[in-house]
Amino acid sequence: MTSTKNDNYPGAKEQGAPSWEPVPTRANAHDRFFRAFFGEPQRFAALLQTFLPPELIRHIDCSSLEVQRESYIDKRLRGQFSDLVVSARLRVADGGEALDSRIYILTEHKSYHDRRALVQILRYQTSIWNRERDEQPQRPLTVVLPILLYHGPPRQISGRFRDEFVLPADFPPSMSSRVTDFTVEVINLSTHADELIEGELLIRSALLCMKHIRKGLSKILEVLKPLVVEYRTIALRPELDVLLEYVIRALNLDPAEFARAVSETQIQGAKEMGKQVLSKFDQIILERQKEGEARGEARGEARGERKAKNLMARRLHKDGFAPGDIARLTELSLEQVREALHNNGAE
Cα separation of 215 and 39, whole Å? Predict the structure, then answer.
């Protein structure tokens, strides 16, 4: 996301990012975890079934959930949202037969209070509908169910867009009804009692970690106790690695420090889990460093090839070739040719 988020809460180190950080610093731990963990249809279905009202969830065929990848998202809005956009078939009343019509479930995640959240969601909804109108103007618009998942400092969060406005007491009802309004389903972990957060062990642990992450390592170790006890039965599940990486990044810890803290809890299986954490994160770091080196080499090769083509384009232009011929000879697009001629040597 483009917004700067404050991770200076208890448990975070003062000196900044740990030395093992293998990804760009702009990647936010909360956003990355939300997309990685709940961007899997079964876990997203569990989230919906845990928090959505029964009268709503019975109309959604959770077996048909499909995560919409970035290719679907309006290019102008990429990088501004931490959303998951998921499509599903609608069911008839009482959870009966699935229909051909679909619904988009738009989930915006916030780890801090953002007064722009509902405006962002509205903008994203209209982006979806504008795209549908451009691609299939004759078809009815797809229903969008907006959800706001919040786990920042405890506070009440309104899901009614009408609450964003302040109207005079004597404002005419006929005008009041014209104020843009829509309602967002709010999943407010900050005010949700722990005992009411249910679900399968890893999903419940993930939600509780999101809720309590600002309370520091000691509280998170308490949250993770059930995972430690059951570690041998869940050690091979990839979502466990995603969760533990989130804890380490969000608390700005070194993996060795986290592994040592887990081992010192004296819970059965804690030492085994601590060793595995170190082993897995050493491998993760190594793989990402190799990926980064490979991407760097590829970018360098691409830049060198583009520079050579730009130089050829300028030479051909100097020799009197038309832009269309230059594009054909250099395998550049017309836009790239014009850019090369405009820059005239500036790389």
Answer: 26
How many other C-beta atoms can be found within 10 angstroms of the C-beta atom of residue 162? 14
Which of 38, 132, 24 is CA-nearest to residue 79?
Answer: 24
In angstroms, the CA 183 to CA 178 distance is: 15
Domain locations in the chain? 39-192, 300-343
Is 224 in contact with 231 (CB distance < 8 Å)?
no
Distances (CA, A) of 67 to 57, 60, 63, 161, 287: 17, 14, 12, 26, 26
| Residue 214: closest CA among 62, 343, 30, 22 | 30
Give the tokens for residue 97.
């037969």
Choose among 2, 38, 29: nearest CA to 253: 29
Nearest to 313 by CA among 305, 303, 321: 321
| DSSP one-letter code for 27 | S
The one-letter code for the residue type at 41 is P
pLDDT in tens, 16-50: 434 334 433 334 788 889 989 999 999 999 999 99
Give yes or no for a contact between 317 and 326, defined as CB atoms under 8 angstroms apart.
Answer: yes
* pLDDT digits 0-9 by tens, 83-123: 788 999 998 766 566 666 889 999 998 988 888 899 989 98
- Name 112's Cβ contacts closer than 8 Å, sequence gap at least 6: 5, 6, 152, 153
